[in-house]
User: Fold these one by one.
Assistant:
Number 1:
Amino acid sequence: MSIRLFDSKEGALRAFVPLEPNRVSVYVCGPTVQSSPHVGHLRSALVYDLLRRWLTHEGYDVTLVRNVTDIDDKVLDNAAAAGIEKWWALAYRMELEFSQAYAALGILPPTYEPRATASIPEMIALIERLIDRGHAYVAADDSGDVYFDTRRWPSYGSLTHQNPDDMDAAADADLRGKNDARDFALWKGHKVGEPDSANWTTPWGGGRPGWHIECSAMATKYLGSSFDIHGGGLDLRFPHHENELAQSEAAGDGFAQYWLHNGLVSIGGQKMSKSLGNSVFAADLLAASDAIVLRYLLGSAHYRSTLELHETAIAEAQAAFDRITGFLARVNRSAAADVVAGQVPEAFREAMNDDLNIPQGIAVIFDEVRSGNTMLDDGMIAKAVSIAERIVAMLDVLGLNPGAPEWNNTGTQPSAVALELLLEQLLLNRQEARDTRDFAAADKIRDNLAAAGITIEDTPTGAHWSLHGR
RNA sequence: GGUGGAUUGGCCGAGAGGCUAGGCAGCGGCCUGCAAAGCCGUCCACGCGGGUUCGAAUCCCGCAUCCACCUCCA
């Protein structure tokens, strides 16, 4: 039983065989830190976090590199538009926002997170190799730009299965110093008015890197000239990934063996993006919901599908996830101990191995929840515990185990202790009222608590309370 | 014009020739003082038109609609 992944370049599912046994190298295109993270960025990072967790679970030693694009047209433009903030200050401020949002969602830090500005020498060396091999040229217009020569690279278009001649040739595009409209910038010559801090010296003049070259340079710098998996959002397939592939292969690198592309997040059937102005920002959504529920929601569609962020999505995800945690809480009460992780069921493994079919894996969790609840109803505690152990194992793989350290943010605060004591007393009062069949008084306590967002559940062993389903 | 992808029940969302996921919501029941939670049952499906087949949501052909990308984007 091996892992199968959908390789965008082949356009088919392929059995995953790493270059080195038991080791996997993954490069993921991270964000351009030009503005605050939105839900789409979170989903993308989450997809590769889940891939990494699954590969790790299956015994692979995973090296995950996710870059930070901290020098780019937009970074410079946005900093200039804002006024006094330096471009590097903006980039760093945004990078911190991204890191915070990732951490809030339980997305593990990558093995390494290189910044583009820290690999300029490698980019320059790569561009020199391309010039030497005749695949790149310095623009004839004295701009200092360097372009990749797409016409001299016969396989250009192979990633996205396009014939360059059929591409919409942006009729009004300014050729500048290009030989062909499809040639793309490896290097952008320094322009008057651009900050000196964004001006690096090269054999062909000062300037800054183009967008695509950084990923080729950093992927091979950290993962080698050939590595296993390259991932990123579907909207990066062209031009970004096509150009990465072209320049890396033209320079003689083997580059990525598998290309993965995650689906986008849509609102009302339309892609969420910075340029469309329909972004739902990570910070807003994290403020409006439990982070673990948001993680469940963003992981609940297959990674290649478009995920529609509809109005009631969070409430539905909360209800669904409460069903899982509700069962675990029942088991913990019955067993008077916290359940630990066991082995994942074979059906779950098969789903995950099949191109990371997490929706199918979640269905396995709910099947287990149902049978586990039945066991509890029938008083078969030991069986319920072993089911719960399997569920915790699956939740661990998905980063959704509410008992895992990254989610453990309650219980020790003074306010939580005070709440616990108050609730104990109120439940006692309610029980006394019920014992004397004073149901009006008992229900008043329950109604008051419900108004405060606290739910009471009566069980054969006494009443339990929960806040927001936890 | 080119390249990919999608259309599944009230909603979300898997599957991929016969076994008709899962969740949310709804309805009926069990349980409960009443609830809640849980369990059982239940309603509601595969965009349209053809074709192949004993059998098609699934394969083939055509059509429609939508989405993404074609050098700013996760």
Note: The two ends of chain A are 37 Å apart (CA to CA).
Number 2:
Amino acid sequence: MPHAARRDGSRRLRYGRLPHRARARLLHRDRVRAVRCTAVAARDLWGRPLRHPDSGDRRRGSPLRRVRHGRRRPRRTLEGAREACRGAESSRRLFDCGGGRGRGPRAQARPRAARSWRRRRVRLAGRPDPQAARARRGTGSASRRDRRARRAQSQGGRRAGPQERAAAQGGVDAGPQGCLQVMAQAKKITPRAQDFSEWYNDVIMQAELADYSPVRGCMVIRPHGYHVWELMQRALDDMFKATGHRNAYFPLFIPMSFLAKEAEHVEGFAKEVALVTHTRLKATGKTGAQAVMPDPASLLEEPLVVRPTSETIIYAMFAKWIQSYRDLPLLLNQWCNIVRWEFRTRLFLRTTEFLWQEGHTAHATEAEAEAEARQMLGVYRTFQEQWMAMPVITGLKTESEKFAGALRTYALEALMQDNKALQAGTSHNLGQNFAKAFGVQYQTAAGGLEHVWNTSWGVSTRMIGGLVMTHSDDNGLVCPPKLAPVQVVIVPIWKSEEERGQVLGVGDQVKAELVKAGIRVELDARDSLKPGAKYFEWEAKGVPLRLEIGPRDVAAGQVMTARRGGSKAPLKLDGLARTVATALDEVQAALFKAAYERREAHSIRGVTKQQFLEFMKGAGGFAYGGFCGSAACEGEIKQQTAATVRVLPDPEFRSPEGPKTCMWCGKPSVAEAVWAQAY
RNA sequence: CGGGGCGUAGCGCAGCCCGGUUAGCGCGCCUGGUUCGGGACCAGGAGGUCGGUGGUUCAAAUCCACUCGCCCCGACCA
């Protein structure tokens, strides 16, 4: 509302002590207006009869209109004008041109010089920038900044008002010194305590993990983020191979009818599949976005579904490949992208398109399939604990939370720093559901014909979101060394050119040594930034260990080390690779320990209904308690507390003493459950 | 579908109400110099079809109409 702010008229300048030129202009304008006013009675300035503005005369500039506006306006005072003037660019222009600087031969000859002069002058005068002016007026036009806030809100966060945000960014309403303070403030990450969602987005943006894309609900994974994914892929892929799986690739497009073949499955995904219905575009002759449209002649007889998961097409192929028990087990995996048309999206956690891995296997017996599903759950657990340093609870999903089409779904659940649970991976025993739907049969040794037993299991780029929310802090990303794209950054420090040579010499040497030891290391030799700026940058990007090398270190044959979030200490150059490797291991272990302790500190066991309600209303976390197994109870709990059963935990995670009754309804308990509010 | 709001430089925003100077500010970016042990400074510079189309006017970022895109609220649906 840029206009409303000024309805109080404080912007109005009277002639007062304005520079000559500005004064003359205003005088002229008002004189013209006065003439127009006199014409209102019957005719305009050009003698044409006046019509009412609403009667078809659309010229808002008509004298009648102007006068009506004029009457409504309150009187302006010189004081009000001066006050407004302090933040107003337009008035600044008036003042400047009064000095003859904006115009005239000199300015025309060197327009850039004039502009620079004005910039300097503004800086020297300490005049606040327009943002400050806006903040002082206490209004906010909803534009891009607000849009971003709203986007955050639509993604589950709370919207911060313009003023609140301004305050958070530090000192923008600080009057004449405003612009100086804005320049001094450098913190770009919203603190967790203030707004967790905003913090999460900030960390991802500052660490350059990802960015928003022009396509709503989709994101771009930037090199730094993709590198994390590649490291995840490598570790997991090695484990998949070690357990006998091979990679393959199945098509992105699936015939729509395939989804319909398994009743539960189609129901589970119907609401979020994208369809390909046409194969050609056609020029419309219009311009802009309407320049092309789908060619009606190219309408597909059967639409293609963009895979929301690949069970159907994979088992259709399995039917072709599997004939005998000798073909089993068939153990495949594919790395690919997936599309699920989500309405509420969040970077990494829930996007319309995401990357994942989906394993699909076929077995001769139910026991074998069950063992496979359990085995892969274990693989995921190992990966998440040992690589991601993220503690997880494994267990069984309830009927309402299981995968559409599965017999049983197992999952891994991690607790984020805002005490909400994140499902970090799933492994399904699909039974014979898909085998029957797609006719995947094999001949047994005895000569009979049987349907195979299938499993599927997957983890996705969502784990990167889990990684962020498990370890990171208000300074940015904290990345466990095993998944850190850059494990060590070397920041050289120098004053003279001579020192630069020495320091970089040692830096190169150290880098080579670490690379040789298999450590991912970066030497930041940029001379456009001061060392301090580099520290902040690499911290935001989650580098676990920093080595500083300055002239004093060179002289002493040492480097300064600083762990992410820790203190500095000198290290001898001798045997550096080994000490660094040890330090990285320690960091990895410490991150897991801290995350584990945090989770346990926010877990409550053997809850009563009353405790449960308070727990979920308060800080939240994992609540362990008895569960009767009824969907009705689940629904009621979800409605009242927003918490759901995350898993029925595996024995290792269960409480020493099992619950006897459902913590909600008091009926006999069928299993201990872990509840939490979830992503 | 109804109501409201917003589109100006890569980002965040002034300017519009009341048309008139070369459309500005902060951050970021480029060049040069001085700096460099926790977010440097100075100087110079690049970058804008003011969402689009049409209209009014001697003159439109500014007024009018239409249009495109985005956001919020409500309704509908679940």
Note: Residues 1-185 of chain A have pLDDT under 50 and may be disordered.
